[in-house]
Amino acid sequence: MLRKFSLLLVFLVATLTVRASTILIPMDDTQTDHLKAYGITYWVLDSEIDAWWLLNYRGGSFAFQHSRAFERECLTRGVKYEVIPDAKFDAIIADIANPEKNMDAMKLEKAPKIAVYTPTFNFREGTSVQPWDDAVTLVLTYAEIPYETVYDTEVLGEELAQYDWLHLHHEDFTGQHGRFYRAYHTADWYRRQVAYQEKLALENGFNKVSQSKLAVVKKVREFVGGGGFMFAMCSATDSYDIALAADGLDICAEMYDGDPVDPTAQSKLDYTKTFAFQDFKLRRNPLEYEFSDIDHNPRRVSKDQDYFTLFDFSAKWDPVPTMLTQNHFKTVKGFMGQTTAFNKRMIKSDILVLGENKPADEVRYLHGNFGEGFFTFYAGHDPADYQHFVNDPETDLSLHPNSPGYRLILNNILFPAAKKQKRKTK
């Protein structure tokens, strides 16, 4: 009887050992849906289960403890996964720890709370659909990562403190209504936008939209300085820094704010206030669809040659930029926007360039620190739509589940889940 009990005990222990396993989500070119893989990892973190981000291992794979619920979710969302014994996972971690390997294992501990800065008013009668898409809200929705929206009133009302991560997209923080005047000032959606922005400014105690947007920019700066993470794309990148540099100056032509521009504004710009850019020149023609020479325009890059290369970083020494550049391709197809590419000469020396088109001498992707927080600027509008025009239909990401350009956005979304580390590169 005792022998039977002992055999049963051995069998139970062996069974438990076999069942002690890990789910590995490969992120190399074998993955069926890279974008939803991030959503799975976020969902695991949101379930208060830690995960691992295996930097430079099979395209930046994810791993977490096995459960049938997690496995079912992978199957439901069409994400490729592997169930491996813990002993094999331990061997992978040991291999990653090898100082000869440019890999690292980053522990992810908490799902970041995400806010998207976006208006909710009706651009067109009976609809809140904007005349352009927003790559971040598209990919968050596709990946099934929850987010909340904020706009001027919420930001000025100190609500940013509730969030870990803030996204800014196709926004004009200079108060010039995107410089759409020449092409769209008679369009109904443009008139609605202007009326809404002016009404919102007055409700928040400002006489001009430019003053209201500057106040928003300063609140975002406080958010980042206090330890938050800000991710900006398209015109929200350069217009953000221009607004900071032009603090106290009138750079808006009469058609935008009712009075003339300060003719001496250029000489009074204060570049010490900006996050990433310096020594830029404002575009003086108010009808031009461009704010400054930060945007690398005119470009001499044809569509078939429009690619940018991600930098290789030391995973063990520079985990932050390594996380932000995880991908299954090192060369990413370029895409246009109001701000398509950053002029390399205008980027401050302490900013970390993550991706560039070296032959064209333009930067597409950069990262920096401000105070206790971080920011990333990603040029272009929609990684899966080379030249997105006003009123074009939004991108269907089910047609682009393995988009390397969209992966860069999702790298930034998961980045705050890792324990904050300052990069060691000087």
Provide an overview of this structure.
- It is a single chain.
- The chain has 426 residues and is α+β, with helices and mostly antiparallel strands.
- The chain has two domains: 2-108, UreE, C-terminal domain (Alpha-Beta Plaits); 114-417, Class I glutamine amidotransferase (GATase) domain (Rossmann fold, 3-Layer(aba) Sandwich), CATH 3.40.50.
- It contains 14 helices and 15 strands.
- It has helices at residues 2-19, 34-46, 68-77, 86-97, 135-143, 152-156, 181-184, 188-203, 209-225, 235-245, 254-257, 265-268, 319-324, 404-414; strands at residues 21-25, 51-55, 61-65, 82-85, 104-108, 114-117, 148-150, 165-168, 229-233, 307-310, 331-333, 342-343, 352-357, 362-370, 373-378.
- A hairpin with a 2-residue loop joins β14 (362-370) and β15.
- α2 crosses α5 (135-143), α2 (34-46) runs parallel beside α14 (404-414) and α8 crosses α9 (209-225).
- The protein is globular and about 70 Å long.
